[in-house]
Design brief:
The protein is of the alpha/beta class. Helices cover 55% and strands 17% of the residues. It has a four-stranded parallel sheet.
Amino acid sequence: MLIVVGPEVIKDFVVGYSYARRLKAIQGKVKDKIQVAMWVSCRLSEDNENNQRLKERFISTVRDHIGVPCFDGETSNDLSDELIKENEFSAASSRIMAIYNRL
């Protein structure tokens, strides 16, 4: 099962990277039943070319350096079994664990 998790809007990359690191930690707890990935809201990227580059850099950093799969908003809807749009990591974590416990 693939669960894609992320905040509605990432206002600050430091906060976004922290969220991704916390997702990596929870992945260690649920890896036998669930793959956790991060999504990046389309709201991060306007049609502005600079914002698109920032979004691509964020996604590649989360994927390549933090080690969490990361998708843009449109892709995550197509790929995920469950999409959790949650700004508070503790609430997202609770939902992941509830799903894990049901499996």
